[in-house]
Amino acid sequence: AKLNAAVGPTLGADVGDVMSDLFSRRKIDDELLDEIETTLLTADCGVDATQYLIDEMRKRWKRDKLETGEQLKGVLMELLEGLLTPLQQPLDIHTHKPTIIMLAGVNGSGKTTSIGKLAKRFQAEGKSVLLAAGDTFRAAAREQLQEWGRRNDVTVISQDGGDPAAVVFDAINAARARGIDIVLADTAGRLPTQLHLMEEIAKVRRVIQKADPTGPHEVLLVLDSNIGQNALAQLAAFDKAVGVTGLVVTKLDGTAKGGVLAAIARTNPKPIRFIGVGERIDDMQPFVAREFVEALFD
Ligand code: GDP
């Protein structure tokens, strides 16, 4: 598989090459299916999705009397597209004003970068954006954020060492007063195993609801695709605490093995609003299942 940051993910250089070799075989047999199974597991598809894909491929092999690896590849791509298409649901930023988007994710997942990318994207669609710096623990990060806000025409509401929930509450009121279209409410990103964090972000959610009973309109979890199956544990923890309504899956460029999206589709399906495909501000795209699958096998 060749790296294709412009389009999206690859199966990871090694996995992609193994896969290409497998499918270039002339004949389908049990051994080939076993090797495909191992490769799917290596690509972060997880046990459940892998089992499903292999079972379905086996059925189609017998039923349609498939002969070549190339035909089997076509079936696998079809199956993956079938799994992922239900997750292709664009984020609605037009129904509410302000649209309140709460962002969650552990440090290092790409949350800050994704917030910048989202702000730029929404502004390009003609929307005004306000950022609530709900991660009140990182002082340096806060200053950086203010500076970033000035440069990008995004109002940043923050508070020294304050209560994250209070910051978000203020931000929503400020957005109303200024007629802002979209509030991006950042939250703290320590590890989800830390109970305290989950309590804190659950509180942020409650405060948003208090400020606007129709909100939050989106609880967006930022997930790093490089962490493989751990993404599922993170999703489960955040989902339990705040009810995740959408995902930004980051770092699908480089060596990421996009199979984790198939695992999510099978075990805890959530709309994938955007995928991150690089570090630059424009390296974010809406998730399109067909493009994603084609890039995987490119
Ligand atoms: P945070 O701690 O969750 O706020 O994470 P950051 O936004 O600071 O990102 C952590 C690192 O990941 C930084 O070096 C980012 O440039 C990088 N990063 C974020 N998103 C992507 C992505 O989609 N692709 C790549 N290659 N790097 C990313």
Structural description of this entry:
This protein is α/β, with parallel strands linked by helices and 298 residues long. Helices cover 49% and strands 12% of the residues. The protein has eleven helices and eight strands. It has helices at residues 13-23, 30-42, 46-63, 69-84, 111-124, 139-152, 164-178, 195-211, 230-242, 260-267, 289-296, and strands at 99-104, 129-132, 155-157, 182-185, 218-224, 246-250, 272-276, 284-286. An eight-stranded mixed sheet has the order 3-2-4-1-5-6-7-8, with helices on both faces. α2 runs antiparallel to α3 (46-63), α3 (46-63) packs across α4 (69-84) and α4 packs antiparallel against α11. The termini are close together. 48% of the residues are buried. The model is unreliable at 1-8 (pLDDT under 50). It binds guanosine-5'-diphosphate.
Give me some keywords for this one.
298 residues; alpha/beta; eight-stranded mixed β-sheet; 12% strand; disordered N terminus
Task: Offer a concise description of the structure.
By secondary structure, the chain is an alpha/beta fold. The protein has eleven helices and eight strands.
Parts with pLDDT < 50 across at least 5 consecutive residues: 1-8
Reported for the largest beta sheet, the result is: 8 strands, mixed
Describe the strand arrangement of the main beta sheet, using strand numbers. 3-2-4-1-5-6-7-8
Radius of gyration (Å): 21 Å
- Ligand identities: guanosine-5'-diphosphate
**What class do helices, strands and sheet pairing give?**
alpha/beta
Q: What is the H/E string? A: HHHHEHEHEHEHEHEHEEH
Helix count from the secondary structure assignment = 11
User: Kindly, what is the distance between the CA atoms of the first and last residues, rounded to a whole number of angstroms?
Assistant: 5 Å
Count of β-strands: 8
- What's the overall geometry? elongated
**Average pLDDT reading:** 89
Residue fraction in strands: 5-15%
Give the proportion of residues in helices: 40-55%
